[in-house]
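stage 2 :: seqdesign
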């Protein structure tokens, strides 16, 4: 797979996936989850990136990140975060050997309704894993920020979310409705996200293919069923 994050470090939003080596657990208790969040905040302050969505699972982490001008590129950001957490984990548990599975995976995300879909995909991870039935019941994700207005200094609510409605309460309700709609498509969505390095509409995919010479690896993601059925259900 082309390492797109190193080609375009600050021009795009990325969905980043980091797994434990051999899918081993990387979080053993709540203190570990909190430590990872502390590290995220520290590196946000150091490298000046935006964090739009996240979900921390037992053996892997999903982040939706936008590196900013004047800050670090995606490689610097992820190297810093992953190394800092490894050092913490190894000290706490006297762990030896390789910790993370290879290099993190990154997918370029277009800054439109596909970003909203990617965010919901990330936040539905605990539901797909059958850890909870409703994403609101999972502590270690950004879902409650968007769906219920929970304060979280880590999360930067993106412009696509604000386009759902000018009214705050209505915007949250529409986001919850959108995520419920995506829940019906969760298996198909997982297959698509597992296979791609770019997630967006036809024109965006073509532009990325031309820019980064990866056309043989990119396919357009079709719109999710029901996205444009009626005005009420429109994500934008």
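stage 2 :: out
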């Amino acid at each position: 797979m082309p390492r797109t994050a190193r080609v375009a470090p600050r021009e795009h939003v990325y969905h980043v996936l980091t797994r434990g080596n051999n899918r081993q657990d990387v979080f053993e208790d709540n203190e570990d989850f909190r430590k990872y969040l502390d590290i995220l905040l520290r590196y946000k302050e150091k490298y000046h990136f935006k964090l739009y969505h996240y979900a921390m699972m037992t053996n892997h982490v999903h982040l939706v990140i936008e590196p900013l001008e004047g800050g670090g590129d995606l490689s610097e950001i992820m190297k810093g975060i992953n190394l800092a957490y490894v050092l913490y984990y190894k000290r706490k548990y006297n762990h030896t050997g390789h910790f993370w599975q290879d290099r993190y995976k990154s997918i370029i995300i277009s800054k439109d309704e596909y970003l909203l879909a990617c965010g919901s995909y990330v936040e539905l991870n605990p539901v797909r894993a059958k850890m909870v039935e409703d994403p609101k019941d999972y502590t270690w994700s950004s879902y409650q920020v968007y769906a219920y207005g929970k304060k979280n200094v880590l999360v930067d609510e993106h412009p696509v979310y604000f386009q759902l409605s000018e009214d705050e309460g209505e915007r949250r309700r529409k986001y919850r409705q959108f995520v419920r709609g995506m829940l019906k498509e969760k298996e198909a969505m997982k297959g698509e996200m597992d296979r791609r390095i770019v997630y967006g509409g036809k024109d965006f995919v073509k532009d990325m293919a031309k820019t980064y010479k990866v056309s043989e690896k990119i396919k357009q993601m079709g719109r999710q069923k029901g996205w444009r059925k009626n005005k009420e259900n429109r994500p934008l």
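stage 3 :: structure notes
- Residues 4-227 form a domain with the Alpha-Beta Plaits fold (CATH 3.30.70.1290).
- The beta strands are 13-19, 49-56, 60-67, 105-109, 198-199.
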